[in-house]
Amino acid sequence: MTISEATKLSPARPVSVRPLIWIGAITAGTVVTNLFAPQILVGLISRSLDMTALQAGLISTLTLLGYALGLVLLVPLVDLVENKRVILCTLGCAIVAALGTALAPTALMLLAATFILGASCAAIQMVVPLVASMVPPERRGQAIGDVMSGLMIGILLSRPAASLIADAWSWRGYYVVSAGLMTALAGALARHLPTLQPAAKISYGALLRSFPRLLREEPVLRVRAWTAALMMASFTAFWAAVALRLPDAPFRLDARGIALFALIGVAGAAATPIAGRWGDRGFARPLLIGSHLMIIASLALCAWAGMIESRIAALAVLSAGTILLDFGITTDQTLGRRAVNLLRPEARGRTNGLFVALFFVGGTVGAAAASAAWNFGGWPMVCAVAAVFGVLAVITDIATKIGSS
Predict the structure, then answer these.
(1) Hey, which of 4, 35, 97, 323 has its CA 20 to 30 A from 398?
(2) What is the DSSP letter of 195?
(3) What's the CA gap between 7 and 247, in Å, rounded?
(4) CA dihedral 345, 349, 352, 357 (to 10 degrees)
């Protein structure tokens, strides 16, 4: 980074980093719940608004599609516009969209609101690199790991939290609560976020056209986004199918039991700060290899759990496999983000947007692969397919050392 770039990227006033990291983690964990809650609320929403099957299926799809477009079209704005303003405006749109979803009187209005809400959730990917930019490069992994722990906890808690709130009030109550929490967070961000001027001096159109060049010129971005996409595919494949497997023997869990089982994955969030700290100490490569091997081993445990006759033993083995799986995923994600955030400071919005968008594609592939595998060979086939993504990541580790320092 040149002296001029460093000057342009410096905050306008001294920043207390630790409160900023905590606020970033809580923001990421709170906002991200809006992306996954519709998956558990879709039945309640569709019955309430007399939606067709097609409309009901679009609730989650449009939310995630909006998020994908937000990553590509909104996140790069942090390379062009003062960061605090962009983040607060985007979060403000999320608050309005959440209230719009809660108050939607018709199916079409609800679908429009959820699409806007999904796009506005891109604020998460604006906050993460901003927090990372506030710490020295030698501590960046630790900061990213701390923020990512909030993100992962939010992802894993989103479904059970939405279910509990909907049971206590209604599905509309979930979105009101979400809007209230995001409003409180917006106030905290307005107070603690630094004013950060971007270094890029190009038009918005040129900013978007620079995506292919960034991928071509940054091998670290390509490799780390590739392994992150593979890990997200494995993660999504597992969680997309495990809810179908848990009601049957030997597990025999009801809806509440499945929701409680989902909480086990929260333990995986503990890997994020650990991975970040050890990555800063120069152990990124062995940690990446270990995380990918852990994915393979965890899925072998999960496949074996379905063959055990004892219910308690089967649940114990499946729980151990699930924790290992989430440890592997979060370690790869944290180290991948660390590597990407050490790249061009003037393009951190675009590099982060590309990184997340590409591993988001991996999640889509994983969900489709899980559906096909379940229909073809049931739970063992799902585990095998999810493990293949881990094998591909290990092959990448052996073939290249890019982004592993």
Answers:
(1) 323
(2) P
(3) 57
(4) -150
Partnered with residue 11 across adjacent β-strands are 196
Q: Cα 367 from chain centroid?
A: 15
Asked whether the beta carbons of 347 and 116 are under 8 A apart, the reply is no
Only one residue has tokens 């947007």, namely 353
Of the candidates 20, 21, 14, the one whose C-alpha atom is nearest the C-alpha of residue 272 is: 21
Question: Which residue in 314, 289, 321, 351 sits closest to 132, CA to CA?
Answer: 351
- Tell me the chain's radius of gyration from C-alpha atoms: 21
The contacts of residue 375 (CB under 8 Å, 6+ apart) are: none
Burial of 201 (0-12, 13-18, 19+ CB in 10 A): exposed
The amino acid sitting at 234 is S
Q: How many helices and strands, by DSSP H and E, does the chain display?
A: 18, 0
With residues binned 3-state (H G I as helix, E B as strand, rest as coil), the percentages for the chain, rounded to 5, are 85, 0, 15
Q: Which of 234, 229, 127 is nearest to 186 (CA)?
A: 127
| Beta carbons within 8 Å of 39's beta carbon, 6+ residues apart | 60, 159
Nearest Cα residue to 114 out of 58, 167, 71? 58
Provide the residue-wise pLDDT of the chain in tens; the chain has 405 residues. Answer: 332 333 344 444 445 677 788 888 899 899 999 988 887 787 788 888 888 877 887 887 788 888 888 988 898 888 888 888 999 999 999 999 999 999 999 999 999 999 999 999 999 888 877 887 777 776 767 777 778 778 878 887 887 788 788 888 889 999 999 999 999 999 999 988 888 777 667 778 887 888 888 888 889 899 999 999 999 899 888 977 887 788 889 999 886 787 778 777 667 666 666 776 777 777 888 899 999 999 999 999 999 999 999 999 999 999 999 999 988 988 888 888 888 877 777 777 788 788 888 887 887 788 788 888 888 899 999 999 999 999 999 999 898 876 555
- Hunting for tokens 């079409």 — which residue is that? 108
Identify whether the C-beta of residue 261 lies closer than 8 Å to the C-beta of residue 285.
Answer: no
Provide the β-strand partners of residue 196.
11
